[in-house]
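In response to the reviewer comment on reproducibility (Comment 2.3), we provide here a single inverse folding case reported in full, input and output, so that an independent group could reproduce the run without further information from us. The structure tokens appear first.
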């Protein structure tokens, strides 16, 4: 059922992204044509570069469509978790296109500074630029809204870029008005400023996408929400070690550990796990691929005191963020627990310090201490 729902959502998302991108392509091609005509007739490098920027936006939309189509391919034997991450590669290509457009614009603008040519605007060309600004504002808001709605980084970036383009086009319009009224040419300098902002946007897009590919820290609110949903189950005392695995926009898998009483049978745990899996997919859209189990003592007051002593000792260290999964077997003289540690200390050092400290408190016990990373 989860896979069928995921497939339906994926198809719906793909159609929405393609539709939005097609609107962006058509709009940007028309804008590029009008601006190019105005720029050539008025001999304005700033307007021509603005037209080139619109063409790069259209090309970015083409790449976004290709990425959405390929990313929506169903899982197969070679890629059992699907092709969703292709969208991140398409975002890298979009960022590269933006960077190329910015660098090319910067080179041409600098050339015009050293070899200036007078621009010649008329009120018709100024009107066309004004209309183009309004169109870009509307397009940018629409595309960005669709990007957020369907969790498409490429669309959201294109929408933000379009809104920013409107601001840059406004600066072109301002320089054109100055040139018309006071015969002061600022074209090349405005072109340099536009280029700098385009390059900056391309670099930021590239960094964001590379972070997605490398794997970045999951949203804390989402993590806390999923843990809270799991802990609503009466048998669960705590949820820990939740790790999200992202295989493309809206394609999230996860694993988690839950703390359960040591009296539960395998059958009880199996029923609980299936209930949790269905609940998390329905409420959060995340597929739980594995649920590990920590057991906690239910029949011995001595172990409660032991846990308190161990927790106080461990949490006295600044680098210790959390202790969980504690279980002590007083008959077999074994003790195990996990400690979430900060990135400021090495795992081997943690083991050495805690083994010494806890070992001195409970010399008869065999210890199993697991340092967990702060995910």
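Designed residues, in position order:
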């Amino acid at each position: 059922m989860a896979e069928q729902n995921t497939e339906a959502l994926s198809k719906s998302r793909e159609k929405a992204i393609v539709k939005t991108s097609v609107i962006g392509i058509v709009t940007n091609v028309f804008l590029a044509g009008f601006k190019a005509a105005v720029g050539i007739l008025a001999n304005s490098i700033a307007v021509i570069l603005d037209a080139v920027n619109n063409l790069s936006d259209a090309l970015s939309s083409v790449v976004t469509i290709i990425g959405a189509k390929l990313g929506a391919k169903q899982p197969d034997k070679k890629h059992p978790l699907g092709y969703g991450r292709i969208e991140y590669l398409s975002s890298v290509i979009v960022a590269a296109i933006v960077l190329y457009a910015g660098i090319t614009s910067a080179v041409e603008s600098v050339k015009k500074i050293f070899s200036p040519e007078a621009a010649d605007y008329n009120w018709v060309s100024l009107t066309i630029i004004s209309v183009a600004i309004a169109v870009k504002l509307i397009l940018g808001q629409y595309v960005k809204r669709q990007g957020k709605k369907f969790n498409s980084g490429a669309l959201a970036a294109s929408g933000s870029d379009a809104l920013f383009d409107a601001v840059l086009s406004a600066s072109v319009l301002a320089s054109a008005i100055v040139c018309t009224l006071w015969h002061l040419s600022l074209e090349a300098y405005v072109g340099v400023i536009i280029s700098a902002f385009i390059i900056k946007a391309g670099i930021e897009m590239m960094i964001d996408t590379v972070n997605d590919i490398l794997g970045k820290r999951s949203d804390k609110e989402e993590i806390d929400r999923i843990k809270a949903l799991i802990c609503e189950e009466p048998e669960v005392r705590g949820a820990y070690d939740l790790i999200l695995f992202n295989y493309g926009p809206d394609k999230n898998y996860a694993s988690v550990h839950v703390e359960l009483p040591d009296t539960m049978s395998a059958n009880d745990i199996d029923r609980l796990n299936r209930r949790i899996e269905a609940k998390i997919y329905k409420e959060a859209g995340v597929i739980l691929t594995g649920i590990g189990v920590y057991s906690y003592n239910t029949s011995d007051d001595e172990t409660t005191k032991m846990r308190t002593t161990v927790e106080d000792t461990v949490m006295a260290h600044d680098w210790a963020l959390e202790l969980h999964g504690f279980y002590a077997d007083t008959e077999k003289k074994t003790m195990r627990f996990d400690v979430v540690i900060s990135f400021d200390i090495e795992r081997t050092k943690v083991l050495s310090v805690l083994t010494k400290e806890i070992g001195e408190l409970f010399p008869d016990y065999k210890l199993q201490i697991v340092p967990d990373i702060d995910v």
